[in-house]
Structure prediction request, 98 residues.
Amino acid sequence: IEWTLKPARLALKRRKERQLTYNTYLQQIKNRQATVDKLRHNAAINPQHTPNADAQMANAQTSLDNARQLANKALEELDEVSQRVLREMDRLKAEVDE
Prediction:
């Protein structure tokens, strides 16, 4: 039965890795959103726009958009791996029931 557990364990390990990656990207989004909010707040308080402030805002927004794209990709990968875990568990259950 050990050889039947190995693929299931591997699938669970990979799912855990993908979950960690996804959670890391979610934290990046949170941090980058806070940066964008801070820059917007500072721009509202001090309406004298400087080229540097505009560049900082543009860079922060681009960084936030990139983090969102990476998080979406990581979520897709997590979903794929989760489906594999379910298939492996169903296969394992069927083999144990035999």
Q: What stands out?
A: The first helix runs from residue 2 to 45.
